[in-house]
Amino acid sequence: MSAHPMPASDAAGQPAIVRLAGVVKSYGSHNAIDHVDLEIRPRELFTLLGPSGSGKSTVLRAIAGLIGIDGGTLTIEGRDVRDVPTHQRNIGMVFQSLALFPHMSVFDNIAFPLRMRREPQGGIGRRVAQALDIVRLPNIAERRVHELSGGQQQRVALARALVYNPRLLLLDEPLGALDKRLREEMQLEIVRLHREIDVTIINVTHDQVEAMILSDRVGVMNDGKLMQVGSGETLYRRPASRFVADFLGRANVIDGVLTGGPDGPAVVTPGGARIAVTPERTVAEGRAATAILRAEDIGMATAPAGPASLAGEVALRLFEGETVYYEVTAPGIDRPVRLASRTGEIPVGAKVWLTWPRDKVWAVEAGHG
Ligand code: ADP
What we know:
The protein has 369 residues and is of the alpha+beta class. The chain folds into two domains: 8-237, P-loop containing nucleotide triphosphate hydrolases (Rossmann fold, 3-Layer(aba) Sandwich); 249-365, CATH 2.40.50.140. It has helices at 56-64, 106-116, 121-134, 150-162, 180-196, 208-214, 232-237, 242-247; strands spanning 18-27, 30-40, 45-49, 71-76, 79-80, 91-95, 168-172, 200-205, 217-222, 225-230, 251-259, 266-268, 274-276, 288-294, 299-301, 310-319, 324-329, 337-341, 351-355, 362-365. The strands form four sheets. A six-stranded mixed sheet has the order 6-7-8-3-9-10, with helices on both faces. A five-stranded antiparallel sheet has the order 13-12-11-14-20.
């Protein structure tokens, strides 16, 4: 679900603030960005999500002008920025390293980009104070950066990126080094900040939960390619490929052939297991298909639960706190089926029957990523 007050669709009709068309960036024979088309809408909080090495940072660095591109076009606010240097792109940036000057004061760190831009001395104090206000850090301007906590340093880095009112804020895993609690606090801080100031944010992360919490839209990358763009909920519920399904959340991806029949559509595995799937169509009958069965959508009982249930045996049970994680082996399915149970009263070795609402089970054409 989007955390942003403005649904992404409200901005859908507006011209893109950043536009990549057929963008390629290669290192040797490898395309770090492989023909990427992407439009970022004004005021949206967009996240590039993908495994390490998938090309997320390279896209961000190309937008920032820290690297050039080898093919395609990149425009910001309608202007081809091929020959526009970073400092003229009106972009604020925060990296995981933060790149603050540890022995300088908070004030001097935040004032640094203004002084680089030769802002008149008189305005600097006011603008630094405003930036500190935005990140909710009043009264620490004279402290040295190395005396601050990790979370305070994050806020200083954000304030420095925002002090010259950039139209675009680029975040390259700035929360990556934080512990879980601080990370969650800063995620909410970014959402709040995005609500309060007029800025478009492009965020990079490999953390799927962070991507879904923060973003109006998420773009999933793999091996230099943009696999799918959509709201977190769309990517989670209606992934376009096996890769996206597997990357977000805990999914069972089960290969077979899409089959019709009086009981409704199912993916039937080579071993003969029937996985009932939604009648919503993206794969034609008779085609090789992958059923995507999410762990939290599966129910488990020790008695047969209707004709559509799948029989199996509990192979693993792990207490996780809120839920209990199970693996169930089932005839006709290669890998154990993974599921999350709220009650978790069934022991290892029990014979069980698995059920799920078929509407929750999506199918994609096999072999697409
Ligand atoms: P991510 O941000 O998704 O972790 P990157 O964009 O950093 O991925 O990297 C994408 C690919 O490009 C990786 O295979 C990486 O090794 C390669 N790459 C990135 N920068 C360079 C560079 N300066 N020289 C050579 N290869 C690079």
